[in-house]
Structures are given as structure tokens and as C-alpha cells.
Amino acid sequence: MFVLGNFLEGVALVLNAALSLYFWIIIISAVLSWVNPDPYNPLVRIIYSLTEPVLYKIRRTLPFVFIGGVDLSPIVVLFAIQFLKVFLVQSLSQVAMGLG
Q: What's the pTM value of the predicted model, to 2 decimals?
């Protein structure tokens, strides 16, 4: 059973790293929306292509995140990422420790 425990621990670590990376990509996307960069810049296009599908779904699902011209959908996504890190990643790690 220790192999399954090691596998789950590895999944938890990779998931934690991926969520942390996406957390920072969301923050960078929010900052870029304030400064209005060149939309043809390849880096800006990559960041927007990674974040806009998720942010669009949040905006469409929760119409109250757009208040007075301010888009609060990145904050909702950041809270969701933090929740997943606390709930899912820690749960996977604890299950892995129980199996190891």
C-alpha cells in the first residue's frame, strides 16, 4: 500500500504546484487588465488564453462579480484556488500518509 501512498503524495504535490502557478497567473492577468498592455504581445496572449475561459465562466455564472465597473471574478477564482489547496491537497496528503 505504500506505493499508492507515494503516488497520492506525488499527485498532491503536483496539484499544489499547479494551483500555486495558476494563482500567480490570475494575479498577473488582473494586473495586466489595469495597465492595458499590447494585446498582440505573445506573453499577454498566453496569459489571457489561460485565464479568460475560467474568468468568463465565473462572470457568466455569478453576475454579481461585476460591481460598479470593477470585475471581481479574479478574486472569486483566487478564493476557489485557496479552497482547493486547503481542502483537496491536504486531504490527498493525509490519505497518502495514512497509506504509507
A: 0.90
